[in-house]
Amino acid sequence: MPDVAIAAPNEAAADAGEQIALAGGNAVDAAVAAVLxxxxxxxxxxxxxxxxxVTVQPPDGGPPQTVxxxxxxxxxxxxxxxxxxxxxxxxxxxxxxxxxxxxxAAHGSVAALEETHRRWGSVPWxxxxxxxxxxxxxxxxxxxASRYYLDHVHQTIFGWDEESRTAVHDAEGEIETGLIVVxxxxxxxxxxxxxxxxxxxxxxxxxxISADVVRRGGILGAQDLADYRPVVRPSLVARAGDWTFGTNxxxxxxxxCVAAMLRLLDGRPRGDWxxxxxxxxxxxxxxxxxxxLSVLDHTDDLERDAAAFLDLVDRDDLALLESGSTAHVSTTxxxxxxxxxxxxxxxxxxxxxxxxxxxxxxxxxxxxLNARGLHGLAPGTRLLSNMAxxxxxxxxxxxxxxxxxxxxxxxxxxxxxxxxxxNGGLGLQDAVNHRxxxxxxxxRPDEVVRTETDLTMYYGGxxxxxxxxxxxxxxxADPRRDGAVRLVHGPAPTMxx
Length: 497
Description:
The chain has two domains: 8-232 and 342-369, no CATH class; 235-328 and 387-482, Glutamine Phosphoribosylpyrophosphate, subunit 1, domain 1 (4-Layer Sandwich), CATH 3.60.20. It is built from 16 helices and 19 strands. It has helices at 11-22, 27-41, 109-120, 125-138, 144-153, 162-168, 185-195, 198-201, 204-215, 222-226, 254-265, 275-294, 302-315, 317-322, 410-423, 428-433; strands at residues 4-8, 51-57, 65-69, 85-89, 95-99, 231-234, 236-240, 243-247, 326-333, 338-344, 352-353, 358-359, 390-394, 399-403, 437-440, 448-451, 463-467, 473-477, 484-488. It is globular, with a radius of gyration of 21 Å.
C-alpha cells in the first residue's frame, strides 16, 4: 500500500485524506475524500453544487489526464433571463456579482470525482464519502477563509434565503461561531455514497435542486442535470527546467495561462528574487493576463485561439513580453501517482435547495466566467474557468501536485510558486510562503500591480505535494489560509498464512 502526502484547505479535509490513506487508499482516493469534506465545511467557497477539475499523473508514468467537471450553461426548455440580482462586495479587492436562482449553473464536480475514482482509485466509493457524512452529521466550525468571505457577504448573499440565513447566523444575527449542522446535508451525502454522482444528476437530489431553482425563477432544469457528463482530456503540457507539467486544457482558460507563464519565465528567477526578477514576473503576467482579457475570454473557439497563443509564446516570447471562491487539494503517493483537484461554487447564489442542505452555486453570475454576459451561452456549453490543477514529473522520477484557489490569482499563485521551486531553488514550503505579485486587469487603463507585503488570502492558497525519487514525500500548505498537511504511511501488507 502506498504512502501518501496530502495538502488540503483545512484540518478536517486533511483528516479525511489521512483516514483513506490508512485504509490503503492511493493519492486519488485521498484527494477525493478530502475534497468531499471541503464541500461540507468550506461554506461560501465550495459545496456539492460545484464544478471543478481533477488532473492526475498516473503512477505508471503515462501522460497526465484532466477530468473536466466544470459548470455547464443550463436552460434547456427554459426562458432565459430573470431570477437574478446584483450585489457589490469588497471581497477580493471589490467585485459586483450576480446572485439568486437564475445564477445557478449545472454542477459537475462530484461527477468528475466519481469518474476519476473509477479510473484511478482503489478504495470503494462509499468509503470515500464517509468522512464527509461524519463532518456533516457531527457539525463543523467555519474555516477562516469562509469567515473572511462571510464577513463581507453574510447579509447580502447569505441572508436572503431563510435556510441559508439560519445556517450561518446565530440568534443575534451574527456569523455563527459554534458548530454548524446544516439540516438534510448528511442525508444528501448518504444518497451520494449509495448512488454515486447520479444522485445529483438523475436521482432524488437532482429532482429537488432543479424543482426548487425553477420554482424560484431560475433556469436549471432536470434535463440540464441529466444531460451533464464529465469529460476526460489529455492535460495541457508545459515544461520548466527538468520538470514536465500537466495542467488544465481548454475549455478552461486557467491552464492555458499557467502554461504560457511557465514558458515565458525563461528559467527565472535563478536564485534569490532580485528586483528585475519581480519585474519580469509582472511583465509575464501583463502579457498573458492581458491576452486573456482581450482575446481568450471572448473567443468563439478557445482551443484554436489558445493553441495559437501558445505557438506565439514559443516562437517569439521576448517580442510578446514587450507588447502591451474555490478550494484545492493536492496529493502524491510513493508509487509516483499525483492528483490535483480544484473545485468552486463561485460566490454562491445564496440559496440552499429545499430538502437537500446543499448551497447552490452562482457561476452564471461571475462576470469573469461569463464574458458574453448573463445567460449568454447556449445550454450545454461549458463556462470559462480560471482553475489550473497541475501535476508534474521530473526526469529523476519525482512527482508533484499543485494548485490554488483565488479567482484570477489562481494562475499567478501557481506559477510564482513553481518559479521559486523549479527555477529559484527554494524548498517546497518556502516557495509556497514566498511573497507574490499580481497584475489585476492587465493591459487595461485601470490596471493595478499589487505587491504582497503581509501574507493575505487575496493572493491565493497554494497546496502542493511532492514525491522525491527515493520515495520521500513532502507536503506544503499555504499560510495565507487554514491549510493542513499530512504525510501518511500506508498499512503494511498482510503476510500470507
